[in-house]
Amino acid sequence: MMRSVALVPNARGLDRALASGIGEIAVFASATQTFAEKNLNADRDTALRRASTIARSASAVGLAVRGYVSMAFGDPWEGDVDPEQVADCAMSLLESGCDSISIADTIGVGTPGDVDAVVDAILDAGGNADQLAMHLHDTYGQGLANVHTSLQAGIAEFDTSAGGIGRCPYARGATGNLATEDLVWMLDGMGIETGIDVHALAATSRWLCNRTGIANASSVAKALLTRTE
Ligand SMILES: CC(=O)SCCNC(=O)CCNC(=O)[C@H](O)C(C)(C)COP(=O)(O)OP(=O)(O)OC[C@H]1O[C@@H](n2cnc3c(N)ncnc32)[C@H](O)[C@@H]1OP(=O)(O)O
To answer: Can you give the pLDDT at residue 213?
Structure first.
């Protein structure tokens, strides 16, 4: 199923999303102060309040809303992030009308132990695993291990990108998202149906990387494409 989601950082973004007729938006807060300032030009509490206000207005008019908590596992400026801090942000966004929360490892430092700690903190604060998604980067090669741990915790939604491209310009030191091909290969092997043809996806990411000049970071895409060349 194809879902189009607009990233909405402020009230003006919500007006533009509503005018476009899109059915789902994403609002974003940061677990850390420094990233909130860099990514949103606001302190952490202001950014959270702004995201909560947008979520409330959007859900009141029937839009689906996903809330993002950035820098949930570590921050390039502040180091380790307290799981309670992540849980506070997540719960505040849920209480403001977000239908789901994506826990973002914006710089890809998280490990399965961190996933367990953050998910436990959110569950302890009253959240449910079926309200959670994971947004993973593969900077330290922990992406698939973190997916596996998340699946065991009952989380079934993951943000990835074809060829592992894409990153936040303010996330110093981060590589791209976990590659969709790598995720699909693992899920296929676990008997979890995604509806995605991994070979067709690898061919698409080769096209995408050729067009953009970005190197393909997916191990699976590189292996499959070598097999067919
Ligand atoms: C979790 C993630 O990784 S998110 C993805 C990556 N990160 C991002 O996309 C960064 C998102 N953040 C931002 O865009 C900015 O920090 C903002 C817009 C939220 C706040 O920045 P500020 O500088 O405080 O906003 P300000 O209101 O002064 O506007 C700055 C410029 O952006 C424009 N702008 C602000 N909001 C919007 C919007 N929703 N749509 C289009 N343009 C906008 C303004 O018109 C202004 O343009 P100008 O310089 O040509 O006049």
So the answer is: 93
The 3-class secondary structure across 81-142, one letter per residue, is: CCHHHHHHHHHHHHHCCCCEEEEEECCCCCCHHHHHHHHHHHHHCCCCHHHEEEEEECCCCC
Predicted TM-score of the model (pTM):
0.94
- CA 222/CA 32 separation, integer angstroms: 35
Pocket test for ligand 1, best of 22, 41, 167 (most atoms within 8 A of CB): 41
Per CATH, is 6-178 categorized as 3.30.70.660?
no
pLDDT tens profile 43-86? 999 999 999 999 999 999 999 999 999 999 999 999 999 999 99
| Count of alpha carbons within 13 angstroms of residue 33, beta-carbon side | 1
Ligand 1 pocket at CB < 6 A:
9-10, 12-13, 16, 28, 39-41, 68, 70, 168
Tell me if 97 sits within 8 A of 65, measured CB to CB: yes
As a whole number of angstroms, the distance between CA 223 and CA 227 comes to 6
* Distance of alpha carbon 114 from the chain centroid: 15
Q: Reduce the DSSP state of residue 177 to 3 states and report it.
A: strand
What is the domain partition of the chain in residue ranges? 6-178, 180-229
pLDDT digits 0-9 by tens, 157-182: 999 999 999 877 777 778 889 999 99
